[in-house]
Specification:
Strand content of chain B: under 5%
Helix content of chain A: 55-70%
Number of domains of chain B: 1
Largest interface: A-B, 22 and 21 residues
Largest sheet of chain B: none
Number of helices of chain A: 21
Largest sheet of chain A: 5 strands, mixed
Distance between the termini of chain B: 82 Å
Distance between the termini of chain A: 79 Å
Number of strands of chain B: 0
Order of helices and strands of chain A: HHHHHHHHHHHHHEEHHHHHHHEHEEEE
Helix content of chain B: over 70%
Radius of gyration of chain B: 29 Å
Oligomer: heterodimer
């Protein structure tokens, strides 16, 4: 057997890269706080574990699970039976691990989930690397894409919180099998596409667009492939497996599949959040966000070099797409929306980008907490950034002075990401780029996940050696949930009293509010309290501590 | 067939875009105004303003101008008498 040393070197590099990433993760894992929705996700996992135990008659498992569930309480927490349509992709396996290994320390449970969430993100990055490798056939560009995918500050920070980046991870893997299936329409690829697209739907219902776009692309490919009957059979196979996996991995559907599935849409409007959000210094309703909201948020919270590369990448692709569109000929294969298998991948990614963007825009999606619900756009951002770098590489390959231009820009983008990660640690999930000065930066929502709660409690313990603290909260953040990041002996010292400021010794404040705080003063700190500490990162106020005079 | 299909998709896309930029834009603007003026938040704000105004009134020695007071008194008397007439 002949060894391909170049390929082998690349494999060793990747192994070394992932190994280092995992080791580094273990070192910094506990720097991140517990976010406000972890309690719900734990409860959700246990709820479905109890349900499955009941269905299969695992009495002991059911008993243990229900005992654990009865210990989870928070007055601001809804029971999972109210929100039982939420996916089980990570919550259920994590609950199973918790029960099987009898993990009693809640903090360990949460950090284990952080680790699992980040590991899935790492795995998805490999699939993204494979997409890039297939498209550009260039190890260096693919590695640059992989590093940018992993190190974009907001996405990196959020990857530990296993919410929106968890969806990005599954969406990326689905997209890989999507591209593979379009390339080679065989049963193995379709089976994996069925599996991962169903898991994506489990996490976000709008992933139903994946099968729709798949059918669309197979259909338009048949204008020149002319193999419609054979392809239709394979699409049917995919849809059958998609439905089977959707049913299997979503216990919510087990009792009455069709009715429960339709209920998802019926309850969609009921469950949608209706709050005020801080956007550009004004409190606006999240039901009526301006059209520019998504683009603005992506622009201010992504590294500038990356935004620039991506913008030009999309612009260039759009130019080429329009050029191809105007030259389409009915009979010629060459005159279509793409001209090669590689260009076809650009088309697929572009179709996904434009369809999702239009969907959110036309349906007037109620967005909140920045663009976190759209973090899966990250894959499009990086893909088109690499597309532009590739264009630079190809355009200047004969001009010796600019030959390495794409490498210099890539180097700047990668170093910028690493520096941003270091400077904002452990608050990368609320990263803003330097385009916003310290005055404007606080006009946008900051720590909506409440990850700073752990740091806040530790700070209180550091500045005051009392045994009991009464804490009020001048923001829409249930910080009592962050207490679980502290050892039990310490978290007993804190009593959270919400907005009962007259009872409190200290007040926690950040800029998260569900009402117009300029007019409704429920989060206004009383005059008999003075600010004693401000936690800032790059001008952004993460939280403030007020003490009774 | 191919050309027809692509053109249909383009027309559909442009229609959606035009719809969003015309009707969608106006409807969003109206929603925004309604939300701002009639929302629970706004009602709370108005209640708060009335309360504040009442507090201000209590601190002032003469809140209503004498000529206004006469006018309001006359108006109330007129209403009372009309109501009494039709008992």
């Amino acid at each position: 057997m002949k060894l391909n040393l170049y390929k082998q070197k690349n494999t060793y590099f990747l192994i070394f890269f992932y190994f280092t990433a995992l080791i580094l993760t273990l070192f910094v894992l506990e720097d991140f706080g517990i976010h406000i929705e972890e309690k719900f996700h734990r409860l959700n996992g246990l709820f479905w574990l109890s349900y499955i135990s009941d269905v299969f008659g695992f009495e002991y498992l059911k008993q243990v699970t229900e005992t654990k569930m009865s210990g989870i309480f928070d007055y601001t927490l809804n029971r999972p039976s109210y929100f039982n349509r939420y996916g089980i992709v990570l919550d259920l396996p994590a609950a199973l691990i918790e029960v099987i290994f009898n993990i009693d320390d809640i903090k360990t449970v949460y950090y284990l989930k952080h680790f699992l969430g980040f590991s899935l993100f790492l795995i998805s990055s490999f699939f993204f690397y494979k997409i890039l490798e297939k498209r550009y056939n260039n190890f260096l560009l693919s590695i640059i894409g992989l590093i940018l995918y992993l190190t974009t500050p907001r996405i990196f920070g959020d990857s530990f919180l296993y919410k929106d980046v968890l969806y990005l991870s599954f969406f990326t893997i689905s997209l890989y099998f999507f591209v593979q299936s379009i390339d080679q329409l065989n049963y193995k690829n379709l089976l994996f596409l069925g599996l991962f697209s169903s898991l994506s739907v489990n996490l976000r219902i709008f992933s139903l667009l994946i099968p729709i776009i798949f059918i669309f692309i197979i259909f338009i490919k048949n204008f020149f492939k002319k193999n419609l009957v054979e392809d239709a059979k394979k699409v049917f196979f995919y849809l059958i497996f998609f439905i089977i996996f959707l049913y299997l991995f979503w216990p919510y559907l087990w009792s009455d599949p069709l009715k429960n599935f339709l209920d998802l849409f019926r309850y969609l409007t009921r469950d949608l959040i209706d709050v005020k959000i801080l956007y550009g210094g004004d409190y606006i309703s999240n039901r009526i966000v301006p059209d520019i909201y998504i683009l603005n948020w992506i622009f201010i919270s992504s590294p500038l070099v990356l935004s620039g590369l991506s913008f030009f990448g999309i612009l260039f692709y759009l130019y080429r797409f329009i050029k191809r569109f105007t030259k389409i000929k009915s009979e010629l294969i060459y005159n279509d929306l793409w001209r090669s298998a590689k260009e076809e991948k650009d088309f697929i990614i572009f179709i996904f980008l434009i369809t999702f963007f239009m969907l959110f825009l036309l349906l007037n999606a109620p967005l909140y907490n920045g663009w976190r619900l759209l973090y899966f756009f990250h894959i499009f951002i990086i893909y088109f950034a690499i597309n532009f770098l590739y264009l630079l590489k190809v355009s200047f390959r004969k001009k010796s002075i600019f030959k390495a231009l794409y490498l210099v820009i890539s180097f700047i983008a990668v170093v910028y990401n690493f520096i941003s990660i270091l400077l904002t640690h452990p608050y990368q999930s609320i990263y803003f780029n330097s385009i916003l000065n310290s005055k404007i930066i606080n006009n946008y929502e900051g720590d909506y996940h409440g990850v700073a709660a752990k740091d806040f409690f530790e700070k209180i313990l550091e500045i005051d050696n009392k045994n009991n603290f009464i804490i009020a909260v001048a923001s829409h953040t249930p910080i009592q949930r962050g207490l679980e990041a502290l050892p039990k002996s310490l978290n007993k010292k804190f009593n959270i009293v919400g907005q009962n400021y007259n009872l409190a010794d200290y007040i926690f404040k950040n800029n998260i509010s569900e009402v117009n705080s300029d007019l409704i003063k429920k989060y206004e700190v009383p005059e008999n309290f003075s600010k004693i500490y401000t936690k800032k990162k790059g001008g952004l106020i993460i939280y403030e501590i007020y003490k009774r005079d | 067939m191919k050309l027809f299909f692509y053109k249909s998709v383009l027309v559909f896309f442009l229609f959606l875009l035009a719809f969003h930029l015309s009707y969608g834009y106006v409807s969003k603007k109206i929603d925004y105004l309604i939300n701002e003026k009639v929302s629970k938040n706004s009602i709370e704000i108005i209640k708060e303003k009335i309360k504040n105004e009442m507090k201000v009134a209590l601190t002032k020695e003469d809140y209503i101008k004498p000529e206004d007071a006469v006018l309001i008194n006359n108006f109330l008397d007129k209403i009372k008498s009309d109501l009494n007439k039709n008992k």
